Amino acid sequence: MEEKQRIGFIGLGKMGAEICGNIQRKNFPITVYNRTRSKAEPFERKGAGIAESPREAAEQSDIVLTSLMDDVSVINACTGEYGILKGMKPGSIHIGLTTVSPAAANNLSDIHKENQCHYISAPVLGRPDAAASGSLISILGGDSDIVENIRPVIDCYSVKTIPTGADPGRANALKVCINYIAMTQMVLFGEIFTFAEKSGVDKELIFKFAQMVLGETGPMIDYVGKIKKRSFDDAGFSLAGGLKDALLFEKAFVDAGVKAGVAALAKDSLLAASVNGLGDKDWSALTEMIRLSAGLDSQADPKIS
Question: Which domains does the chain have, with CATH numbers?
Fold first, then answer.
C-alpha cells in the first residue's frame, strides 16, 4: 500500500477545523498548528501532533494547508524565522484555502518557487456545515501535475473541484467573483424586503419569487431566508469576515481597473453593522443597516446607534 502523504494544517477556525477533521478521518498523518493551542488539542486526542510554529508544522509535512483570515495572515505564516517556508523541504506543497487577493496568490506562488516549493490556490465554496460533511467545492489554481498529486487530500473535504489553470491568482479571482455575487445579492434582497415592508407587500411573496429565480435549496436562498426572517445568530460566515471580503473585493477590482460600485455599498453597510454591534452575526445581517436607514427597527446595539 502506498504510504500516505504527511499533512500539516495551520488555522483551526470554523472552516479550518472541519476541513482538518475530514483529512484526519481519512487517516493521513497530520500535524496541526493554531495560535490558540486549545483549538488544536481535540486533534491531538485523535492522534495528531501539535506544532509550536508554522515552521515546525511544515518541517514534519509533505503538504501544508493554511486556513487563515486574509492576505496578511497567510503571508506572515509563510515568511519569517518561524514561517512555513523555513520548514518546507524542496518539492513540498502548500495548499492555500484562504480567500486572498489574486495578487497575493501570485506573490505566494513566486516566493514558494524561490524556495523550490509549490503553492496551489485552493479557496473553497461552502459554509462550515458543508465543510463538516465533506461537500465543499474547491477552486484549484496551479500546476496541473501538482494539483493531481494533492487530489487525495482535496477529495477528503470536496464534493467537486473547479480547475482554473496554472496561474494561482485565477482561482482567487474566481472566488472573488462568486463571493461578490453573494454579497451583492444580500444587498439587493435587503433593499427589496425593506421596500416591501414599507409598501405593505407580504415578504413571503418576495421569498417565493426568490425561490423561482434562485432555486428552492442552496446557500443563496438560505441567505435570503435569513434576511426575510431577520435571523442572523447562526453565523456560517461572520459579518466581520464579510467586511474583510468587501475590502478585498474593492482592492482586487481596483487592481484590475474596474469600479466595484456595489461592493462600496455593501462595505458601508458591513462597516456600520460591525460598529453597531453585529460583527459576530451572520454577514447577511448587513441588511439591518438598510432597515435602519429606512427608519425601520433594526438589531443594531441601541447604545451605539
Answer: 7-166 (3.40.50.720), 172-293 (1.10.1040.10)
